Predict the 3D structure of the following.
Amino acid sequence: MSATIHGTGAGATRSRQGTQEAALTVSNVSKTFRLPHQQYHTLKERALHPFRQRTFDELHAVDDISIEIPEGEFFGIVGRNGSGKSTLLKCLAGIYEVDQGEIQIRGRLSPFIELGVGFNPDLAARDNAIINAIMLGLTRAEAFERFDRIIEFAELEQFMDLKLKNYSSGMQVRLAFSTAIQVDADILLMDEVLAVGDASFQRKCFDEFTRLKAEGRTIVLVTHDMGSVERFCDRAMLLERGRVIDIGEPESIARQYNDLNFKVARREQAYAGLAPAPAPAIARLHSARFESAAGVPIVSIAQGEPCVVQMEVLFEAEAHNPVFAVSLRNEFGVTAFAAHSELGYGDSGHFRAGQLATIRMRFDNWLGPARYTLIASVTADGPSPEIYDLREDLGSLIVYATETAGGIVDLPHTFEVERS
């Protein structure tokens, strides 16, 4: 078996005309972990059983993956937990040595892979930012020159002399992300960058993605957020159990990811006796997303602006008066808003087999600043409706505001004060 990583360093040039050269080439890469059946936690345990045979299970975290990512492409990697996404990214970053295959890297690479990696908790943010920037390829002079920009973006001016061990996880991720985007890297590796941090910082991440994409940087993003994949990525790849399911257009990959999640969830519920075996499909959620009032896909919105949830439903059999429903869940798993067509629209009418319906739910957005995930469903009409299809985490929306009272919603209101 052979395992090789090649890189051309910071001096690589970009190809802007004609056929773009590959920034990342992954050829038949595999990574396997050995999981021992018997684990020794102390020297005493090992000394007491010196001749006990150790047996292992093999976990094929990355299994014969080949991809080519051209310079300037925004490439998404998606998959369920345990599919091998993060392991593949760590192989690209050189954190893991591959067991088989070859990785070729053209240009300077900046990884943002795991919270706190490369940071010393006993050093102040100032020292950590400079050391990390130097490790990512800046000279000492460049690191000092860009320090103010790093701290300003991270909004940590008041805490730059505080030791990192006293930082919250949100503060640490802001510092790490701010450092990673300041190193002029040709290739950025991002692993669930939006999973930590408040709504304001996540919106700044979205803005940075837009800027970096416009500059022609090569970005590889691992995420569970299909809204981000459809909004930013040029192509995406779906992984399952370490193998490639498909590589293609973001919308197609997002649909396949949601289909896979739905099938697995239904199968697990059936095994647990919580749900009947899947019945023949009546309707299937084809896609769902957030839009502005003008019909433009969005991933963030200011509080007070009107918002639209758009979903497409494909009917595979005839249905009469199906009910369409959406709900928004915040970062703490609390349902902040829910609506269904029966309440706000009435009878939806008759749909024939093979018909594709587009449903838009419009609402005045007075949600509190936070990140919200979208849950959508289509059910039969009636007091005990049959669920035709239900999908969670179809997309996400960041709501931002200049002021907030701190509730789940900030409803428009007035105060009156009378004095006697």
